[in-house]
């Protein structure tokens, strides 16, 4: 009897973990301040000019409180700062500090090397096809229950 084949969501989750673990280990080896996977995701969706906590929560699919906690952890580590939004005086924008921008550049380089490592394992054509498939916009539809 064969073990059950992993679902595609499980395989995608495993692949994401592989990238996250490689990124976190490489950043630590490079002397960057430690960050959590949740902080990494938030850091990745941040606009250069700054982003509100509410928008960061929406982009990462977490509650505002969770995004707020991740932001404050990154502010405490010196990676992010809060500034007034010039367009909306009552709102605050979250943006990278100089240290945060340096860490972000390191992370981008590390992710490029991890992608090259993946291409060496499964082939450049497979990575290109995977990237193309994942960049294709998709619509999430709710599945309606059939009524008896």
Proportion of residues in β-strands: 5-15%
The main sheet comes to: 2 strands, antiparallel
Q: What is the end-to-end distance?
A: 35 Å
CATH architecture, please? Orthogonal Bundle
What's the gyration radius in Å? 19 Å
The H-and-E topology, N to C, reads as: HHHHEEHH
Low-confidence stretches: none
Name the strands of the widest sheet in spatial order.
Answer: 1-2
Question: In a few lines, what is going on in this structure?
Answer:
This protein has helices spanning 8-29, 37-44, 53-60, 64-76, 98-122, 124-135, and strands at 80-84, 92-96.
How does this model look, in words?
- With 148 residues, the chain is mainly alpha-helical.
- It has a single domain, classed as Arc Repressor Mutant, subunit A (Orthogonal Bundle), CATH 1.10.10.
- The chain contains six helices and two strands.
- Helix 3 packs across helix 4.
- The longest helix is centred in the last third of the chain and has 25 residues, at 98-122.
- The chain is globular and about 60 Å long.
């Amino acid at each position: 009897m064969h073990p059950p084949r992993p679902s595609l969501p499980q395989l995608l989750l495993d692949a994401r973990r592989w990238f996250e673990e490689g990124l976190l280990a490489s950043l630590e080896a490079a002397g960057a301040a430690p960050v959590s996977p949740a902080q990494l995701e938030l850091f990745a969706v941040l606009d250069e000019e700054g982003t509100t906590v509410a928008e960061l929560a929406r982009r990462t699919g977490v509650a505002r409180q969770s995004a707020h906690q991740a932001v404050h952890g990154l502010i405490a580590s010196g990676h992010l700062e809060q500034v007034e939004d010039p367009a909306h005086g009552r709102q605050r924008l979250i943006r990278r500090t100089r240290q945060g921008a340096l860490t972000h550049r390191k992370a981008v380089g590390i992710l490029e090397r991890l992608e090259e490592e993946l291409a060496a394992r499964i082939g450049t054509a497979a990575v290109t096809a995977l990237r193309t498939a994942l960049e294709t916009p998709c619509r999430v539809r709710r599945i309606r229950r059939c009524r008896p």
